[in-house]
């Protein structure tokens, strides 16, 4: 028994083949979890709720099928299933850190112990008595290596659907602004310098179309993550599990969870190769790229607002400074950009982790699953926050028109009449004053200013093609 037990806390003693250990009497976890808590100091991270739900549903499906096949006592199966249905209460007892070693074994054992102790209580026993055994009952015909990855894929599928829903809502909000601002002209910018005219609505429309691609990509990638390795046990050969169990477990799990999963054609491949997570996260990174770009563009267009671009009137959602009165900052776009940066970092981690699995198992499944789900949560939060912010954006219409009328780039259509060199020279001679440049060009070509203006209609510059 370990020393250092506090006198004001009651303990029970549990044993495994490594020795004995004192476990808090009220804890649903057991000795394997206690060892993991000592080995893996907390990072403050917590497993995603969708992942924990999926893991408990796997244990429920296994108990149901094992009883159906006559390999698990019906009363024990029912107790396990009932305990699994209490996952929202029991999830707080899954205390192993997500960034643990051992390919997730400590997590699986933690969940097994929690379910076993609760099922034991349901059958009238006390925690630690293990009327329901963590290994022989809760973990029957399973391995960490098939349950952990399957739970991860199920959680990704459920979270993907929620994320796509948030992308759709943000896209719709941006499209509403596209319609609202469609007749408002301003100056486009390339390399942060004045370019040719654009409708502000067209700018919002381009952002919306980028999100349309993200929607399509994320919808399609669900097909790639559906194939699970449950039933493959340790390395995908199904050792320790009967054939009828291996053939039926996916069907039962699909029914229990209502998640559209499918049995992988090659369980060995699905156990050792986690490239589908790299594929999924690559598309999450693409969404993060677009959200970063949109947020930063909003930030730039609202900058100043009096000494920079200042064309977007950004919503005053928080006091912007502790010293400068009246200051309003683009805090929501900056929040979105920060979350996007974390997704970029997660993508690098996941790419390396997926590549560095060895032989029949990827030992880094915990960090792969955890950071994939964490990125998805960050992107959901980004979409929600940005949607509320975009809905409150307004335009400084006078500022837009002022910039439009003062930009020398408005003379671009005249190159079709007089050539690039002549128009450029006129702009240079006029010291980039657009009205003066028109006069200079008209004089050099021997035509009136009005004749030249007839060739130059800003209203026609934002459509397709030369008019």
Structure explained in plain terms:
- This protein has 3 domains: about 25-140, Fumarase/aspartase (N-terminal domain) (Fumarase C, Chain B, domain 1), CATH 1.10.275; about 145-230 and about 275-400, Fumarase/aspartase (Central domain) (Fumarase C, Chain A, domain 2, Up-down Bundle); about 405-460.
- The longest helix has about 35 residues, at about 145-180.
- A hairpin with a 2-residue loop joins strand 3 (about 185-190) and strand 4 (about 195-200).
- The relative contact order is 0.10.
- The N and C termini lie far apart (about 90 Å).
- The chain has 18 helices and 8 strands.
- The strands form 4 sheets. It has a two-stranded antiparallel sheet.
- The protein has helices spanning about 30-40, 50-70, 75-85, 85-90, 105-120, 135-140, 145-180, 200-225, 245-255, 265-270, 275-300, 330-355, 365-390, 395-405, 415-420, 420-430, 435-445, 450-455; strands at about 10-15, 20-25, 185-190, 195-200, 225-230, 260-265, 310-315, 395.
- The chain is mainly alpha-helical and about 475 residues long.
- Helix 2 (about 50-70) packs antiparallel against helix 3 (about 75-85) and helix 2 crosses helix 7 (about 145-180).
- Mean pLDDT is about 90; it is low at about 1-5.
- Order of strands across the main sheet: 1-2
The total count of helices amounts to 18
Helical residue percent?
A: 55-70%
How many strand units?
A: 8
The CATH topology annotation of the largest domain reads as Fumarase C, Chain A, domain 2
The CATH homologous superfamily of the largest domain: Fumarase/aspartase (Central domain)
Please state the second-level CATH architecture of the largest domain.
Answer: Up-down Bundle
Provide the CATH top-level class of the largest domain: Mainly Alpha
Following the backbone from N to C, one meets helices and strands in this order, namely EEHHHHHHHEEHEHEHHEHHEHHHHH
């Amino acid at each position: 028994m370990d020393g250092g037990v506090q006198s004001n806390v009651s303990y029970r003693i549990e044993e495994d083949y490594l020795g004995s250990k004192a476990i808090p009497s009220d804890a649903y976890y057991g000795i394997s979890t206690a060892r993991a808590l000592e080995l893996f100091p907390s990072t403050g991270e917590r497993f995603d709720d969708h992942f924990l739900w999926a893991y408990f549903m796997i244990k429920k499906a296994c108990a149901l099928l094992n009883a159906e096949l006559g390999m698990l006592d019906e009363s024990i199966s029912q107790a396990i299933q009932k305990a699994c249905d209490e996952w929202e209460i029991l999830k707080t007892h899954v205390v192993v850190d997500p960034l643990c070693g051992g390919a997730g074994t400590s997590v699986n054992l933690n969940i097994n112990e929690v379910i076993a102790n609760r099922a034991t209580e349901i059958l009238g026993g006390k925690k630690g008595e293990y009327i329901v055994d963590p290994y022989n009952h809760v973990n029957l015909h399973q391995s960490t290596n098939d349950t952990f990855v399957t739970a991860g894929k199920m959680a990704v599928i459920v979270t993907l659907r929620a994320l796509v829903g948030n992308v759709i809502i943000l896209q719709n909000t941006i499209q509403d602004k596209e319609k609202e601002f469609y007749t408002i002209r301003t100056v486009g910018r390339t390399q942060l310098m004045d370019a040719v005219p654009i409708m502000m609505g067209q700018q919002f429309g381009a952002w919306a179309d980028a999100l349309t691609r993200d929607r399509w990509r994320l919808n399609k990638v669900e097909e790639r993550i559906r194939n699970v390795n449950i039933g493959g046990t340790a390395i995908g050969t199904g050792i320790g599990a009967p054939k009828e169990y291996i053939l039926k477990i996916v069907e039962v799990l699909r029914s229990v969870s209502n998640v559209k999963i499918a049995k992988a054609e090659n369980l060995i491949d699905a156990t050792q190769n986690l490239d589908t997570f790299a594929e999924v996260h690559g598309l999450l990174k693409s969404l993060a790229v677009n959200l970063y770009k949109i947020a930063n563009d909003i930030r730039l267009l609202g900058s100043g607002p009096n000494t920079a671009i200042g064309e977007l009137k950004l919503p005053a959602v928080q006091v912007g400074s502790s010293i400068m009165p009246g200051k309003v900052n683009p805090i929501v776009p900056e929040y979105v950009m920060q979350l996007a940066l974390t997704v970029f970092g997660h993508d690098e981690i996941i790419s390396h982790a997926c590549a560095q699995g060895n032989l029949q198992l990827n030992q880094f499944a915990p960090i792969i699953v955890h950071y994939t789900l964490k990125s998805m949560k960050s992107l959901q939060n980004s979409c929600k926050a940005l949607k509320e912010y975009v809905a409150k954006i307004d335009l400084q219409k006078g500022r837009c028109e002022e910039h439009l009328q003062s930009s020398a780039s408005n003379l671009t259509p005249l190159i079709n009449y007089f050539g690039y060199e002549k128009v450029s020279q006129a702009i240079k001679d006029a010291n980039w004053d657009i009205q003066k440049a028109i006069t200079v060009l008209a004089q050099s070509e021997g035509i009136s200013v009005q004749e030249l203006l007839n060739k130059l209609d800003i209203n026609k510059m934002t459509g397709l093609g030369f008019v």
